[in-house]
Amino acid sequence: MKDAADINSNAWNLRRLLVSFAGLFIINLALRVFYLRFDFVNGDEAVRALTAVQWLDGARLYVDAITDKPPGATLFYAAIISLFGRSMTAVHLAAIVWNFGAAVIVYIIGAKLFDRKTGLLAAFLFVYFGTNYFTQDTMAANTELLMALPYTASFLYFVRGVRSEGRWNFFLAGILTGAAALFKQVAVFNCLFFVIYECIHIYLGRGRDIGLYKRIINSAARLAVIAAGVILVAALFVVWLGSTGTLAGFWRNAVVLGAFYIGSLPRDLWLRFMVTRSLGYLLFNIVLWALAAVPVIRALRHRNEAEVIGEQGRLSSDLVIGLWGVCSLSGVFTSGRFYGHYFIQCLPALALLGARGIGLIAARKKRTRRLAASILGALFLFSFIRFHQRTAVLAFETLSGARTRWSKAWGMTTREDEAEIIAGEMRRRVGAGLPLYIWGYALDVYWRSGCRPASRYLTPYYFTGHFYPEVTKTEGPPGERFWREAHERFIEDLRRNRPRLILNVDEDIQALPYPDIISFINDNYEREGLLGPNPAHQFIVYRLKD
């Protein structure tokens, strides 16, 4: 009877878990699916989509199609496009499923370290707060969203390894960190966490049964196994680059160009972005940050009473997750722009800690619970209305088939309408599959028109080094030889492909400090006029001379 009761209980628990996951998937879908009507909610998506199409057409990444990011996102887009055709809807749907996969991993971590309820709460917080910011940051299939799954899985396998579930877990943690870094380089901050954790483990274990020397050896062995996993991924990546003849191109356009990108921001602007944008993300998501702070503060005050991941002498689970979150936050600080989607790297740790915070608050006295629920509930409602009123409008329009005045006024809508008008004109005057060059960040015109980029450089900053519109200085950037060679390659592309038209938007080419490029354009093209429905955002049209 007892065995039958246990079987029935396990079956009931499994059904409840499956129902919970189904509900979580529906929430994940409902928060994102109504944005599918927009091809690109973030301009960076166009870079990934175009490089994916070029790669599928035989172009070599970093040589024939330049991108400054590792290939993970481009290959993700390419895989979806190869299966479902040239469709951003398919890419976004795949990203929604991918994001749910990351939420499942967050659940597994929470259930392993605490209990199933905490795991489900953490997965829900990850799903919801992954959308609780500006649309261009949260709804895009960007590198951070795609990185989150292997990045979080790496932490899971590290935790399993620490719990003495086999050294292979550390190897998998290394492999997954390497895989995450193929989406965005900041995933290597997982390695920083691994090292700091082991150093703290050695320090806290002094004077216990296991000798200090043995602890050092054990920690070094674990780190070596992790490093082997990372190195394996890196070695395979280098072999792939070498076999495709793109190793030098990757070094130039992903490593050197990336270093210029990071170092190009003046200190005062970096500080301003850090304060304003970080504070904006924190305040709009203050509920999650406040909940996450509760278990960390408790663990710091009562470390000896807290749960442990492994044997005695290890950090509490809350502090381990907090340390992982801090190391992840360090990755946000590397680029300097502090956009909202950069904080996705911290979201798994914040979600786990936030779920723990809910549990700890629920265990407090009734009056304390009510006060906390009232304050946090009001703050949650404010941010929900602030960011998901747009979701509600899109849901209404999708279900009713109507278009409202609210969505017509959005920047996303006006940009897509503008891109469709410009793309239609390009299809008529240039023709799908024929070369066109767009100087400016209007890459969705390529996508909609079907015109082929006339240069390997999709965006001007890949060959000018002018990364930030906010930086008004025009003196030459560091690495003059690098940029001179890039100018030459850009001009060579235009000379070889001879695009019938060049579209110039965002900044007037003639006003820029690039005399070699201006001279080439003036010698070979003539300014025809302006194009576009928005008087404040006109495209300058340059036509190839006869």
For the secondary structure, the number of strands is 5
Shape, please? globular
SSE pattern: HHHHHHHHHHHHHHHHHHEHEHHEHEE
Distance between the termini: 91 Å
Task: Report the β-strand fraction as a percent range.
Answer: under 5%
Provide the structure class. mainly alpha
Instruction: Report mean pLDDT, rounded to a whole number.
Output: 91
- SS field, number of helical segments: 22
Domain count: the total is 2
The major pleated sheet works out as: 5 strands, mixed
Give the strand order of the largest sheet, numbering strands 1, 2, ... along the chain: 2-1-3-5-4
Radius of gyration: 26 Å
Task: Give an overview of the whole structure.
- Strands 2-1-3-5-4 form a five-stranded mixed β-sheet.
- The model has no long low-confidence stretch (mean pLDDT 91).
- It is globular.
- The N and C termini lie far apart (91 Å).
- With 546 residues, it is mainly alpha-helical.
- Helix 19 (444-449) links the parallel strand 1 (435-439) and strand 2.
- It has two domains: 2-367, no CATH class; 411-544, no CATH class.
- The protein has 22 helices and five strands.
